[in-house]
C-alpha cells in the first residue's frame, strides 16, 4: 500500500494515477475538506487529520505501507519533516513531489513571514495577505491591523481565527482559489491594495496570475521564499514520482 500525503491538487492527481495503475492507496489530508475533494474508490482509504511523526509511524506499520509519497504544499514543512523522519525510522521509501518554483521578476523576496511583516511596519497603504491562516500572527502583531486584508479559504475555523486575532468582517475575504488575473485586479482595486504578500505556490496555485495582476496595477509584491528542506528522492514531474516507487 502507498501512503500519499496530500491536501493539494497535485496529490489528488497522483492518487488517481496510482489507482489507475492498480495500487492500493492510503491518502492523508490535514482537513476534512481536503479529504472530501478526493474521489472515492474501493482501493483508497482517506485519513483527514494532521499527523505527528509517531502517528505516521503507527500508520506505516498498521497498513503495511511500503512507500510514502509526499505531495503536500511546498510550505507544509512540519508534515514533510515528520514524513522524512518516519520513513527513516521505519525503513520505508520516501518520495517527494515538489512543485516547480516560479521565476518572478520585480518582486521583493523574504526568507520569513516575520521579515516581510517588519519591512511593512513603517510603510503606508493597505496590505493583502494571500498566505493562508498559519502565519497571520506575524503581520497582525507587527503591522497596523486596520491596514490588513486577508484572502483565505471560507472555512469556519479559519474565519474564527481571523476574528480571534481582532480582524473585522470587512477585512476577511473568504474565497477559494486559484483566481483569474481579472478577479485579482478587481479585488486589488476594490480594497485599494498597495502591497501584496504571497507565497511561491507554483503556477498550479495561481501565483503567476496573482503577481502579473499586481504588477499591472503597480502594487509592491512581497514573496515569501519556500522553506529549505533537504528532500531525498525529489521530483517535480508526477510521472517520475510514480516510476520511482
TrEMBL record:
GO terms for biological process: cobalamin biosynthetic process. Pfam families: CbiJ (PF02571). It comes from the Bacteria. InterPro entries: Precorrin-6x_reduct. Pathway: Cofactor biosynthesis; adenosylcobalamin biosynthesis. One of its GO terms (molecular function) is precorrin-6A reductase activity. The keyword Oxidoreductase applies. Keywords: Cobalamin biosynthesis, Oxidoreductase. This is Precorrin-6x reductase. It comes from Thermohalobacter berrensis.
Amino acid at each position: 500500500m502507498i501512503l500519499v500525503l496530500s491536501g493539494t491538487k497535485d496529490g489528488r492527481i497522483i492518487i488517481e494515477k496510482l489507482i489507475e495503475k492498480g495500487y492500493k492507496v492510503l491518502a492523508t489530508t490535514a482537513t476534512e475538506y481536503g479529504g472530501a475533494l478526493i474521489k472515492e474508490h474501493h482501493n483508497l482509504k482517506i485519513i483527514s487529520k494532521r499527523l505527528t511523526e509517531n502517528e505516521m509511524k503507527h500508520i506505516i506499520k498498521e497498513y503495511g505501507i511500503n512507500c510514502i509519497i509526499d505531495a503536500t504544499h511546498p510550505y507544509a514543512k512540519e508534515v514533510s519533516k515528520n514524513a522524512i523522519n518516519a520513513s527513516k525510522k521505519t525503513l520505508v521509501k520516501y518520495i517527494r513531489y515538489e512543485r516547480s518554483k516560479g521565476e518572478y521578476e520585480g518582486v521583493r523576496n523574504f526568507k520569513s513571514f516575520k521579515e516581510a511583516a517588519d519591512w511593512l511596519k513603517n510603510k503606508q497603504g493597505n496590505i493583502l495577505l494571500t498566505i493562508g491562516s498559519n502565519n497571520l500572527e506575524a503581520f497582525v502583531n507587527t503591522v497596523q491591523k486596520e491596514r490588513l486584508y486577508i484572502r483565505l479559504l471560507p472555512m469556519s475555523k479559519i474565519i474564527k481565527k481571523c476574528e480571534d486575532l481582532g480582524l473585522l468582517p470587512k477585512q476577511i475575504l473568504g474565497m477559494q482559489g486559484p483566481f483569474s488575473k481579472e478577479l485579482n485586479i478587481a479585488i486589488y482595486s476594490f480594497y485599494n491594495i498597495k502591497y501584496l504578500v504571497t507565497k511561491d505556490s507554483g503556477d498550479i496555485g495561481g501565483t503567476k496570475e496573482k503577481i502579473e495582476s499586481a504588477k499591472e496595477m503597480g502594487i509592491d509584491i512581497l514573496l515569501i521564499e519556500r522553506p529549505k528542506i533537504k528532500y531525498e528522492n525529489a521530483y517535480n514531474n508526477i510521472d517520475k514520482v510514480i516510476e520511482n516507487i
